[in-house]
Amino acid sequence: MFGTGLLMGVMREIDKAVQGELDSEQEGILRKLRQLHRAIELKEIDEDTFEERETQLLERLETIKRMRR
Prior knowledge:
Layout: H1 4-41, H2 47-67
């Protein structure tokens, strides 16, 4: 059977992988938010589009924050 130490090691590796994925997703969302702000400043999108997309991105960031608790 598997020892407790081995199981804990596997769990740590899984946690590390999940945290890495969350980091990558968070970086991507922040990049999209910067692009979104640039687009509204350059009048490439309207205010309604900006607000809709910004809300979606901020909600996803909040979800990631909750997952890290």
